[in-house]
């Protein structure tokens, strides 16, 4: 209901009330806003306080995390150091254990080698021997270790025992193989000194090779370690034992064969047959030796205890006959056989297998050269220097006239061998002798003999020329001298 304004006072009052009401309505909304904003500000302040507290807590947490990370890294580094130290200690312990193993092996190896069941043929002998060698090498290379001298002595004692077992085993097997060969020879119906060639090859070589086959692995193992002094000595002893057993088997057979040749053949044929047979024996022996000692076959001295006695017997058979041989043709043939056929062809073609024969054959050849030189000097002295001419030898020029009537005219002795008949015999003997010696003697020796022979021949021709001058005429003697000296110079 609207109020009735009576006066100004009422109007002002109404107006003030109206204005107050309007203000009240307007301010209420803003007041509400203010209150709302105030609440929001308070809320934001609370949130900010909480954020500050949270940031503070995060800072504390970050500091704590940093501290934990630092401690963790320190712990991790310490763990890494401990792991490295542990690994180093483990490696050190392992290295120490490995080093001590060489010393600890002494008891194990000793108990094995001194075991009554241990023998060279057992499967663990060679591995034990190899381990023993490794221990010896290690201790020798580390002499600074405590008691290394004591251990090396004990290891060496075990090695000596093992090598002694090997020597005994090799000798036992070789003797057993030889016994089997003897038994096979007896069963074949022959004696040891009388064996047919077929039986000789099949029994003495094939049977021996089969009987001693178990030695090959051991001998090969020894050869592989021959660079060490102890094994080199054992290998040399095995070579010696082998050669002794082989020599006992074939010595009498070789002697019997060569003796048969000596009884029924002349010296050149005996030399040819004896050398050929000995070459075959040496080839077979070398092949058998290579089977057992493949790495030692290149050393010629290894087979010397076997080859030298066999070749010496041939030398002893030939030398007495050689000393009494006076035939120059036989001696020249011997030089050709030894120098060309045997040394030049057979030994050169098989130099490795037959090298052991060369010293003896060269010794025989040297004796033949010596005998040939002596006989040549004797021939020059007896047949040329002291030649006593017959009347027919000095019948010049009638001798030339008779030859011209019976033979056609020729220019050289090669075209007409009968032309030699017109020569003075010392000239023909000189040229014939020198032609034989030319290929048989060393150049220096031949040159000396040739000079001597030519001088003696020239002197003999001069003497004959003087005799012809007395018998016929001076001109005939001079023509005889000129002709023969020209022939001597040309030849």
UniProtKB/TrEMBL annotation:
One of its GO terms (cellular component) is Golgi transport complex. Residues 33-176 form the Conserved oligomeric Golgi complex subunit 3 N-terminal domain. Residues 202-490 form the Conserved oligomeric Golgi complex subunit 3 C-terminal domain. Its main location: Golgi. It is a peripheral membrane protein. GO terms for biological process: Golgi organization; intra-Golgi vesicle-mediated transport; intracellular protein transport. Transmembrane segments: none annotated. It is found in: Golgi apparatus membrane. PANTHER family: CONSERVED OLIGOMERIC GOLGI COMPLEX COMPONENT 3 (PTHR13302), CONSERVED OLIGOMERIC GOLGI COMPLEX SUBUNIT 3 (PTHR13302:SF8). This is Conserved oligomeric Golgi complex subunit 3. The lineage of its organism: Eukaryota, Viridiplantae, Streptophyta, Embryophyta, Tracheophyta.
């Amino acid at each position: 209901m609207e109020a009735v304004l009576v006066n100004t006072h009422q109007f002002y009052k109404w107006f003030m009330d109206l204005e107050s009401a309007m203000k009240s309505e307007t301010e209420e909304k803003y007041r509400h806003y203010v209150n709302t904003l105030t609440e929001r500000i308070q809320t934001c302040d609370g949130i900010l306080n909480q954020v500050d507290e949270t940031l503070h807590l995060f800072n504390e947490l970050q500091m704590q995390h940093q501290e934990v990370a630092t401690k963790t890294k320190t712990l991790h580094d310490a763990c890494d150091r401990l792991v490295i130290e542990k690994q180093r200690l483990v490696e050190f312990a392992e290295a120490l254990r490995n080093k001590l193993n060489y010393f600890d092996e002494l008891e194990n190896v000793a108990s094995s080698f001194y075991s009554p069941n241990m023998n060279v043929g057992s499967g663990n002998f060679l591995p034990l021997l190899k381990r023993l060698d490794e221990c010896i090498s290690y201790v020798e290379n580390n002499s600074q270790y405590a008691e290394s001298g004591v251990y090396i002595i004990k290891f060496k004692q075990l090695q000596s025992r093992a090598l002694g077992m090997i020597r005994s085993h090799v000798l036992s097997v070789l003797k057993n193989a030889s016994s089997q060969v003897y038994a096979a020879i007896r069963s074949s119906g022959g004696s040891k000194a009388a064996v047919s060639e077929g039986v000789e090859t099949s029994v003495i070589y094939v049977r021996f090779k089969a009987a001693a086959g178990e030695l090959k692995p051991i001998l090969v193992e020894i050869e592989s370690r021959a660079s060490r002094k102890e094994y080199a000595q054992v290998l040399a002893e095995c070579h010696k034992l082998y050669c002794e057993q082989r020599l006992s088997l074939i010595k009498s057979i070789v002697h019997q064969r060569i003796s048969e040749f000596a009884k029924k053949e002349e010296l050149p044929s005996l030399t040819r047959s004896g050398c050929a047979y000995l070459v075959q024996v040496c080839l077979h022996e070398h092949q058998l030796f290579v089977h057992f000692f493949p790495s030692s076959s290149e050393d010629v001295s290894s087979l010397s205890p076997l080859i030298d006695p066999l070749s010496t017997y041939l030398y002893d058979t030939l030398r007495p006959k050689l000393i009494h041989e006076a035939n120059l043709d036989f001696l020249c043939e011997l030089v050709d056989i030894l120098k060309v056929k045997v040394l030049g062809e057979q030994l050169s073609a098989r130099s490795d297998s037959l090298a052991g024969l060369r010293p003896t054959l060269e010794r025989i050849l040297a004796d033949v050269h010596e005998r040939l030189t002596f006989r040549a000097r004797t021939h020059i002295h007896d047949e040329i220097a002291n030649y006593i001419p017959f009347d027919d030898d000095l019948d010049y020029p009638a001798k030339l006239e008779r030859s011209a009537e019976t033979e056609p005219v020729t220019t050289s002795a090669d075209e007409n061998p009968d032309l030699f008949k017109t020569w003075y015999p010392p000239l023909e003997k000189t040229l014939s002798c020198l032609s034989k010696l030319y290929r048989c003697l060393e150049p220096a020796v031949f040159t000396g003999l040739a000079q001597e022979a030519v001088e003696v021949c020239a002197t003999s021709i001069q003497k004959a020329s003087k005799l012809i001058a007395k018998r016929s005429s001076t001109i005939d003697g001079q023509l005889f001298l000129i002709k023969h000296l020209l022939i001597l110079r040309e030849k």
